[in-house]
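During the no-cost extension, the postdoctoral fellow (Dr. R.K.) reprocessed legacy sequence entries with the updated structure-token encoder. One reprocessed record is reproduced below for audit purposes.
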Amino acid sequence: MRKKTICAMMTGFLAIQGIEVHAETQQTIGEAASAVESVELEAEIIENSDVTDADGKAGPEELLPDEKSEEEPPIEEKPEQEPEPPEEKTDPAETGKKETEGEEKMLPPTVIPDPEKEPAERWEEEEEEISEDSESGKPEELPEAGDMGSGESESEEGCEETDTKEIPPCMILKSDGASLYNTTDLATIVQRMEDFHPDEIIYVVDKRQELHFVQVFRCAKKANMVDEDTKLSFVGFGTMNGKDGKPFKTREGGVMRLERLIAEINEEMYKKIVENRSVKDENAEHTAQLVGLSAIKYGDLSNQASKDYVFDIDRFTSFEGNTGPYILYTIVRIKSILNKYTDSGKTLENLSINPADSATEKALMLSLAKFSEIMAAVYTEKAPHKLCQFIYEVSNAFNGFYHDTKILAETDEAKQKGYIALICLTKAVLKQCIELLAIECPDRM
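Re-encoded structure tokens follow.
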């Protein structure tokens, strides 16, 4: 009956699922039902193993030779004679059965090995071997990789010897196939090499990107993306902050855009020029634009690139101190002296510099003599702030000489020509320096 019931249930379940039942399927269901019925019978036999049948005979599992169980008092009478539960004296058959069942329960973790543990142990051994290889730092495959991953090639180039910290590898492709910044920067290097064949490529970027470009440069060198004699350089710059030391913002608290910054400085310079009335109204706006740009460029480049600095509009637009307007005002003053000299009917040709007659004249000569040395340092160190320092030094030296010497009122013509020759040289040096900073000087201020 059980077999028929199980077959009917399984056939009904398949019908509900929309599965057609064939003869072979019926046979398989019958075999499965027989197996289920046998398992249920065995379970009932185990449950009734300690209970006798209707004729008083022992159950299937109570076939032990020991007959002492009939002589011993029943287990149920123990609690009435003793207050403690019957833990010591029990039926030997039941005790043997429980011990056997306990042993069977303990067998799987102790006697039968778990097959799932074997590969885990092998993986642990492999991980230990890999970690040992990585600690040794000399895997067998690395020497075959050539320049791209060899530790020997890194030491041969020499740049890795100066590393103060470990440089991570340069990743150029994500696991999903997407590109990274490293990928586009390397592609740009390849394109620039094909288009321009440069001797040097200089990257002027936020100083916080230094590690990124160290990785890119090394990858480009090791992969032979650039010529052996092509130099890749990184120049990191800091942030421009306001008076509060925080990133420079607008009065409303938003991010200051360059367009708005230029407009505000031009407006400030226009007010100062109009107040001085040194320039006609039709030229005042153009002059204000030139002076305003000089304030921004000189104010930014006069600071060391890698350091943060405070951008103060009032200080940067001042005509005094180490500012762009002060430098331009000095050059305009020299232009004014030379114009007055030529307007008097004299010429600027065939002039020569005389020996210094005063301390201020000597100081100006010594400052101008540093021109070649400063230019070489600015180029090799990529340090425009040193050029600004030199410009400011020459400007101060000239203004000191100007206030100490009566250039146009000098009665000695030979001495006057020496003065004019010296300030002509000063003008040429200052003009060339500001042109290197992309600063244009107006004729009047």
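The beta strands are 200-206, 231-237, 240-241, 309-310. The longest strand covers residues 200-206. The remaining legacy entries will be reprocessed before the final report is submitted.
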